[in-house]
Amino acid sequence: MEALPRADIRTLSRAISRVENRAEGYQTVLREAYRTSHWATVLGITGPPGAGKSTLVDALATHWGADGTRIAIIAVDPSSPFSGGAVLGDRIRMDKSSALPNVFCRSMSARGHIGGLSEAACDIVAVLSHFGFERILLETVGAGQSDIEVGGTADCTLVVAVPGLGDQVQAQKAGIMEIGDLYAVNKSDLPQAAATRDQIESMLAVAYMGRPGVNAFDNADAPGMRPPPLLTPGGRALLRRHGDARHEATTWRPPVLAVAARGNQGISELAAATDQFLAWSQQSGRLLAKRRSRIHDQVLRLLTQRLLQPFTQASPDDATPLTAWIDAIVSGEASPIEAASALLMDKI
Predict the structure, then answer these.
(1) pLDDT tens profile 243-261
(2) How many angstroms from the chain centroid is the CA of residue 24?
(3) What is the Cα–Cα distance from 134 to 27, expressed in whole angstroms?
(4) Can you give the three-state secondary structure of the chain, one letter per residue?
């Protein structure tokens, strides 16, 4: 098993810190990192607090790392909306994988970002890829049903559920339960685990045909194929992600797997399902499309920051062109859309 050179670990840690903090020289780091010819596969792991995400990440990293694969774990912790600080304690639950010489573990603060990820996450994926990592396990804050940004960053998204945290209505709510490429019911040795799995399966049956995993349809009259459901905007989004049986040879139906990470039960099956999805995603062209979308979103984020920079550098009490518009809006003489249009025209 090939260990990561200590010099590389120090260099990598400094590069990540520079990028995460947007410290002096980070742009040089990113110019080099994004010129990599190799991109690591990114598995995003999300789910509610208490689902055992960190323990599951540790088990998966240990499974994949046992054969010498270079694994990076990025554990994103929630940050204070006031101080910006974070405990950064998820990695203490990753004692098995962190003992492997080819596994690198790093904690990050979400820095108040409401999507469950730091804005630097995409850049850090590029840095880790540049340093030769083959798999990146990205554990998100996972604080609730709206923390879905990981779906745009990861090549494969694993949603972790656990028995006892909600009823069937909770399981069917929009948001976090719609972004999964895989679902895992952790702590499956607990009571109600089978019921939780059945609830998720029932939810998926509304939108998906076929069996869990890859489904091959040679033609529109394939045996066992039922007519497609009426398509809502959400349904069309699912078809873009996982295939349309009416027009494509293969589709993907997210499997729901029972695991008990603490006892290492179901981990090999979960790892195999992840690799099956990644292989299907690559063959169908979706893996490249997902990576293009990730870079597209990052460029837009940077553009937004650059455009807002002249208005956000000064404090709200400083006299700026924005101050006059705020006064006008508060007094009922203008609207925010007028202010935005005028301020943007001034900068063009």
Answers:
(1) 887 788 899 999 999 999 9
(2) 27
(3) 23
(4) CCCCCHHHHHHHHHHHHHHHHCCCCHHHHHHHHCCCCCCCEEEEEECCCCCCHHHHHHHHHHHHHCCCCCEEEEEEECCCCCCCCCCCCHHHHCHHHHCCCCEEEEEEECCCCCCCCCCCHHHHHHHHHHCCCCEEEEECCCCCCCCCCHHHHCCEEEEEECCCCCCHHHHCCCCHHHCCCEEEECCCCCCCHHHHHHHHHHHHHCCCCCCCEEEECCCCCCCCCCCCCCCCHHHHHHHHHHCCCCCCCEEEECCEEECEHHHCECHHHHHHHHHHHHHHHHHCCHHHHHHHHHHHHHHHHHHHHHHHHHHHCCCCCCCCHHHHHHHHHHCCCCCHHHHHHHHHHHHC
Q: Show me where the domains of the chain are located.
A: 6-208+254-302, 318-347
- Tokens 């169908």 -> residue: 284
Instruction: Answer whether 88's CB lies under 8 Å from 53's CB.
Output: no
pLDDT at 28 over 50: yes
**Angle CA(244)–CA(250)–CA(254) in degrees, nearest 5?**
75
Q: Which fold has domain 6-208+254-302?
A: Rossmann fold (3.40.50)
Cα–Cα distance measured from residue 152 to residue 293, given in angstroms and rounded to the nearest whole number: 7
Q: How far lies 253's CA from each of 207, 208, 234, in Å? A: 9, 6, 15
Measured from the Cβ of residue 2, the count of other Cβ atoms closer than 10 Å reads 9
Q: From the CB of residue 55, how many other CB atoms can be counted at a distance below 10 Å?
A: 22
pLDDT, tens digit, 9 for 90 and up, residues 38-75: 899 999 998 888 888 999 999 999 999 999 999 999 98
Give the predicted TM-score (pTM) of the model: 0.85
Residue 178 identity (one-letter amino acid): E
